[in-house]
Each structure stands twice: as structure tokens, then as C-alpha cells.
Amino acid sequence: MIEYKIGTDDIDWEGLRDLYGEVGLVGGLGKKRDLPKIREAFLISFKVVTAWDNQRLVGAGRMISDGVCYGMIFDLGILVTHQRQGIGRQIINILLKGHEDLFIHLTSTFGNEEFYKKIGFKKHKTGFAKYPIKSKYLED
Ligand SMILES: CC(C)(COP(=O)(O)OP(=O)(O)OC[C@H]1O[C@@H](n2cnc3c(N)ncnc32)[C@H](O)[C@@H]1OP(=O)(O)O)[C@@H](O)C(=O)NCCC(=O)NCCS
What we know:
Helices cover 29% and strands 24% of the residues. By secondary structure, it is α+β, with helices and mostly antiparallel strands. The site of coenzyme A (COA) has 19 residues, from β4, α4 and α5.
């Protein structure tokens, strides 16, 4: 059975680094396995949810928010061995629980748009983004 935890107190940081080493994300820090910066980003997040299979960290996601108006969800990642078992949906549910009044934004990775549609998100008609790097996610 998968167990879910809220917060960073019990995080297995090496496990988190390995998770994002596998699935990428965290603004490119995942593939670089840059644990100090990944840790810093998670520690100052508004809400962090992790998923555990016995003692193994198998999924995570986080929300950045003012807690009043807006929230942004980032870095939802599930180990390949544990994908398509409902863990991603559950992490999102827990991230949003208690914050139903917030306007929530997120960006899907290519190929996962249907996942977000399935769990109730809608495409934003006028979303804009500004990145410090060239990105295939941004129009010219
Ligand atoms: C995208 C991701 C988070 C989905 O998590 P998951 O735990 O595998 O998804 P779930 O099992 O909770 O899926 C919920 C539903 O969405 C569907 N779904 C999941 N990924 C999908 C995809 N890529 N395309 C279409 N449907 C998808 C599932 O089949 C399930 O459908 P159902 O309710 O009809 O059974 C996971 O695949 C992942 O970590 N990918 C790599 C990292 C990544 O790109 N993350 C996204 C960052 S924005």
C-alpha cells in the first residue's frame, strides 16, 4: 500500500534526488542531481507531498503559493515502476486539499496533457511564461 506524507520533515533527500534524476523536472536540477538546490527549493515550498512504497520514496509533488489567491503546482514525478497506479492523481488531490479557493496553475510536460485533463484541469487560453533558458515549451 502506498503511504502519503505532507511536508519535508521526514523526506529522504537522496531518494528525492534519485526520483528527479530519473524523471527530470525541478527546472533542470533533477537531471543534474543537484541535491543542495533541490532541497532548498523544496524547503521553501508552500506544500510538499511525497508517496512511499514501504520505506522507498516513489513519488513527489509540490505547490508554491501565497495561500490566499494563487498556487502553482510543480515537479509532480512518479518513479517509472510506479506510474499509472493512481499515485500522481492522489498527490495532486492531497496538494489541493484545503486550498479549494485558490487559482491553480501548472505546466504539463509533453505527452502528459491527458493526465491533467483526466484529473480535472483545463487548458489555459492566455497562459504566458518567461524562462532564463531557451525552451521547447515556449513559442518564439
Ligand atoms: C505524469 C505523471 C505524473 C502521471 O502520474 P501517474 O501516477 O502515472 O498517473 P495516475 O496513475 O495517477 O493517472 C491518473 C489517470 O491519468 C491517466 N494518465 C496518466 N498519465 C497519462 C498520460 N501520459 N496520457 C494519458 N493518460 C494518462 C491514467 O491512465 C489514469 O487514468 P484513469 O483514471 O482512467 O485510470 C507520471 O507519469 C510521471 O511522473 N511522469 C514523469 C514526470 C513528468 O513528466 N511529470 C509531469 C510534470 S508536469
